[in-house]
Amino acid sequence: MNQTIRMVGFDADDTLWKSEDYYREAEAEFRRIVGEHVDLDDVGARLYAVEKRNLALFGYGVKGMTLSMVEAAIDITEGRIPASDIHRIVSMAKDLLRHPVELLPGVADAVEAVASRHDIVLITKGDLFHQEAKVRESGLSRWFQRIEIVSEKDAPTYARLLKEFGVAPSEFVMIGNSLRSDIAPLLELGAWGIHMPYHVTWAHEAEADVDCAHPRLRVVHAALELPDLVHAISQLAAST
Amino acid sequence: MNQTIRMVGFDADDTLWKSEDYYREAEAEFRRIVGEHVDLDDVGARLYAVEKRNLALFGYGVKGMTLSMVEAAIDITEGRIPASDIHRIVSMAKDLLRHPVELLPGVADAVEAVASRHDIVLITKGDLFHQEAKVRESGLSRWFQRIEIVSEKDAPTYARLLKEFGVAPSEFVMIGNSLRSDIAPLLELGAWGIHMPYHVTWAHEAEADVDCAHPRLRVVHAALELPDLVHAISQLAAST
């Protein structure tokens, strides 16, 4: 078969730019605020439990996380937290939504190089409004044929998108830091996955069962490696 | 020219199903909660001012509104509101996100009838996660070729969508309750607009300057009127 790679997808948060670090800082600040009212060592775990419980209702993103933080702060302190400290939590969310977009090393060059050979698309989940703002600020949007912001990155969502793009799974490579959201569903559909781990990963995103030796999976540790690897995958796909 | 209507777009909230009523109820509840701590008659206006100020950061939807309510409740009571009442505000948001989808009268039949003659798409703004849940629950999703959830319904957004759909503005009719979001930008682009007013409209959505006698604008007051009107527009467009 003369089949080759026709399109390359990029995840955004913690693949193109920093994100989880900001969430970690917010969580540390949350623990400090709540820690002024209770002496507990499981504040982080209790916040995660509330977030996880609310995920089906709020979805991903800063606003849902903040509402979970407000709820958790009240629960954990049994209502003793003053309004002024809840205000600090809401202000923290606003800072998080305003933080500048910081591209990860080598990303700008890598995206341009991959785009010079292939159609590229950006596929990210989370809050529509915040993600669009980040894409705009990143300066990268001109390289992407399409920018898709979805509510969940699972196999049915990717199948729908590939159908809309008119690309078969075997012709598609997805690049991202999350095994759960960027890699596992693509391998399941018959597409290729390039895992680019980030130094911190939200517990939720790390929950995935992927075979490290899967023939359509590759791992890189720097954006610099991407253009050659995509080219190699394209040649390999064409030869099989 | 043998030009005709090739695609019809529907707005969702307060066009296909009830929405603003739920927001109004939440706002009334907010005024009751805050009213237990202060004796002011401009609580609603102060909430709207906070919402409007946060719109550029939060975008539309229940989660952003709720964060604005938490912020406004703390501001208005000068920090005197107890955590338990803030918890009531967050719970109210969760109820709002869980409320069942209630189709407006005649909508199910009208959507099916329009879909029998034209490709139809759903174009809505607001929170991605919540809107997707509502579309799923509405039972209408099978009729729509595409479901587009966008962060702002302005002329550039509609222009991008029409380009993606491969449809010229003159071949497109948009149906919705908001002059600002569903009608004005389409008339500007050269498309058709069918305004279907709802009995309540959020102040923000009513802010639009539309000529009632615009040749590509029609107004209906019941979904029942839609199939014949779309057909008539299509014939008119073909004859000019």
From TrEMBL, chains A, B:
Keywords: Hydrolase
Nucleotide-binding found in the keyword field: no
SUPFAM superfamilies, per database record: HAD-like
GO molecular function, one term: hydrolase activity
Organism domain of life: Bacteria
Pfam families registered for this protein in UniProt: Hydrolase
Protein name (record): Putative hydrolase of the HAD superfamily
Lineage: Bacteria, Pseudomonadati, Pseudomonadota, Gammaproteobacteria, Lysobacterales
